[in-house]
Design brief:
- It is a single chain.
- This protein has helices at 12-24, 38-53, 88-109, 122-133, 145-160, 199-210, 212-220, 226-240, 285-302; strands at residues 3-8, 27-32, 59-62, 73-76, 114-117, 140-142, 167-168, 171-172, 180-181, 187-188, 191-192, 245-254, 260-271, 274-278.
- With 308 residues, the protein is α/β, with parallel strands linked by helices.
- The chain has 2 domains: 3-142, NAD(P)-binding Rossmann-like Domain (Rossmann fold); 145-302, L-2-Hydroxyisocaproate Dehydrogenase, Chain A, domain 2 (Alpha-Beta Complex).
- A 6-stranded parallel β-sheet has the order 3-2-1-4-5-6, with helices on both faces. A 3-stranded antiparallel β-sheet has the order 7-10-11, with helices on one face. A 3-stranded antiparallel β-sheet has the order 12-13-14.
- Strand 8 and strand 9 form a beta hairpin.
- Helix 3 (88-109) runs parallel beside helix 4 (122-133) and helix 5 packs antiparallel against helix 6 (199-210).
- The longest helix is centred in the first third of the chain and has 22 residues, at 88-109.
Length: 308
């Protein structure tokens, strides 16, 4: 039986996620956007690519939510990017209203779905989706850590001139400048990164990872979409196919890692039920301090929300 996946937001990230899921050919995909004809056009284009790339053309574009009924997973990418002159508080308030509205619509039609939140500020928007949906914590999860980890791994691969497939890395914490690349758990072909690079060069890679999103914005004039879309699709795979992969995701913590009542990036086992387990990773003293600082930064952003 084919699964059903809805992606809300047909912009660059949402469209990339929708096509990546469609290419796996296990799910019917619904692409929703408020712009008239926009998601329909994207869906038509993706369906026509099916015969070239080898998947069934089962993508539906819609300006409403009726077509999303019975979705197994809903990916929420809707929201406005931060524009010049817009404060953090402005962005939070604007996207809180958008994510709240989207969540109400999809939950009404898919009460058993798992919500994968991609909208920014990511950590705060997970709180919004959880509060509005009233879903148990396991069924509301955010996409951030996979993307941040992919950036860290790519930078390490380039620095060492090795295959990125041999780099094992993890980035925890909030999806912001105080994220925590876990150097102590990072290896290349099983060899600890600290044995391959001096501390100064590792520190530069960590800093580049923290500001990796901004680096792309400076180059493109807009946010990234290929890696974020692919990262969200990887989470959809693990949930829909019950793969139980351990992936860095933004999960609701209730005491894990010394944090309570907050969405934070941690290793999580993703399966059909959503977040089936938060995996405890042993951190160094420095990494624990960085994680606490990241949690404090996330609480500051969440504190701006009207709905907490």
């Amino acid at each position: 039986m084919r699964r059903k996946v809805t992606v809300v937001g047909a912009g660059n990230v949402g469209a990339t996620c929708a096509q990546e899921v469609a290419r796996r050919d296990y799910a019917d995909v619904v692409l929703v956007d408020i712009i008239p004809s926009f998601p329909q056009g994207k869906a038509l284009d993706m369906n026509q690519a099916g015969s070239v790339l080898g998947y069934e053309p089962t993508i539906t574009g819609s300006n409403g939510y009726d077509e999303t009924e019975g979705s197994d997973v809903v990916v929420v990418t809707a929201g406005k990017p931060r524009s010049p002159g817009m404060s953090r508080d402005d962005l939070v308030a604007t996207n809180e209203a958008i994510v709240s509205s989207v969540t109400r619509e999809v939950v009404e039609r898919s009460p058993g779905a798992v919500l994968v939140v991609v909208s920014n500020p990511l950590d705060a928007m997970c709180h919004v989706a959880k509060a509005v949906s009233r879903f148990p914590k396991r069924r509301v999860v955010g996409m951030a850590g996979i993307l941040d980890t992919a950036r860290f791994a790519a930078f390490i691969s380039q620095e060492l001139d090795v295959s990125v497939r041999d780099v094992t890395a993890t980035v925890l914490g909030g999806h912001g400048d105080q994220m925590v690349p876990v150097v102590s758990a990072t290896t290349v072909g099983g060899i600890p990164l600290a044995e391959l690079l001096p501390k100064g060069r590792i520190r530069k890679l960590v800093e580049r990872t923290r500001f990796g999103g901004g680096e792309i914005v400076n180059l493109l004039g807009t946010s990234a979409w290929y890696a974020p879309g692919a990262a969200a699709a990887q989470m959809v795979d693990s949930i829909c196919l019950d793969q139980k992969r351990v992936l860095p995701c933004t999960a609701y913590l209730e005491g894990e890692y010394g944090v309570d009542g907050l969405y934070m990036g941690v290793p999580a086992k993703l399966g059909a039920a959503g977040v089936e387990e938060v995996v405890k990773l042993k951190l160094t003293t420095e990494e624990r301090a960085m994680f606490r600082a990241s949690a404090a930064a996330v609480r500051d952003v969440v504190g701006v929300l009207r709905r907490k």
